[in-house]
Write a structure and sequence with these properties.
There is one protein chain. The protein is mainly α. It is 77% helix and 0% strand. Pfam families: Trehalose_recp (PF06151). It is found in: Cell membrane. One of its GO terms (biological process) is sensory perception of sweet taste.
Length: 290
């Protein structure tokens, strides 16, 4: 409940900051995100229920029901279709909703930073007072990003970890090089392929969206330094010391989003992560094939 309040406050703060800098929030992104949250679990469910037959459903029912659930003959698939809704939907829906929410918040924050940079190039007249307002507004952005980190860094860690685990499992199950001694059952081929693509896209979208926020904060620091040089050049010498104190007082480092502090989201994370998963999967397949 507390985390829900934090997210609500975060959404309100992002909206207010966007309004202050005239940042545009495309509502199409919100509608598209809502469609993704609904569509992904439904597709995952359909890829299984449309490809299973009665004997396979009976085996699944024994597995999930611990041999304690018995239904009349010919009704195993109908019961499993109903049961899979409660098995699949909570996990897939939660992971998808977390990833979509995180990506949207990162994109909105990036848009705010872009408008902040654009406004910095148009500051006029450029004096100590306007420069101070510019620095104070960045502090507000910094606080919102800190709130984003505090509220969603742990959920996004679980989501990204889940994505990596699914990529690893699906890569081994699909066995693109024919190394596995236990080929994937044909009933799960469509589901495994879909899960692999969804997990990969989720990992890429989360990483790229989060890293774009860090890139914009680095650009913001460069703009602030350029503005400082311009203000110093047009300021009388007695006021320069006060200006430097102002800059140091309101100075904030570039902000990098993390997954609960375990790793930072940068574009350089993508290739090592995917390469490590692929290498380890091939190693396991090679060992199993011997």
């Amino acid at each position: 409940m507390a985390n829900r309040k934090h997210v609500s406050t975060l959404l309100r703060n992002i909206y207010n900051l966007g309004r202050d800098v005239n940042a545009k929030f495309n509502q199409v992104w919100i509608y598209a995100g809502a469609m993704v949250i609904v569509t992904v679990p439904v597709l995952a469910w359909l890829t299984i229920v449309l490809s299973i037959d009665e004997p396979f459903c009976q085996n699944l029912l024994v597995y999930y029901g611990l041999n304690l659930i018995h239904v009349s003959e010919g009704q195993n698939c109908n019961f499993m279709r109903f049961l899979l809704i409660f098995i699949q939907f909570p996990v897939i829906s939660m992971n998808t909703a977390t990833a979509v929410l995180y990506v949207l918040l990162c994109c909105f924050s990036r848009n705010i930073l872009k408008e902040y940079l654009s406004n910095g190039e148009k500051v006029s007249p450029l004096d100590c007072r306007s420069f101070k307002r510019y620095l104070i507004f960045y502090e507000q952005i910094f606080e919102v990003l800190s709130s984003l980190e505090a509220s969603l860094s742990f959920p996004i860690l679980l989501t990204v970890s889940n994505n990596c685990a699914f990529i690893f499992y699906c890569f081994m199950a699909l066995d693109p090089f024919g190394k596995s001694p236990w080929p994937l059952a044909e009933h799960f081929y469509n589901f495994t392929t879909l899960t692999f693509l969804i997990s990969l896209l989720s990992f890429l979208c989360v990483t790229l969206a989060a890293s774009s926020v860090g890139d914009e904060t680095k650009n913001a620091k460069q703009i602030q330094e350029k503005l400082l040089q311009r203000v110093l050049a047009s300021t009388r010498k007695p006021d320069r010391d006060e200006l430097m104190v102002l800059f140091v007082t309101h100075k904030r480092p570039a902000f990098t989003l993390t997954a609960w502090g375990f790793f930072t989201f940068t574009k350089g994370l993508i290739l090592p992560a995917i390469g490590s998963i692929s290498t380890f999967s091939l190693l396991i397949l090679q060992i199993d094939s011997k």
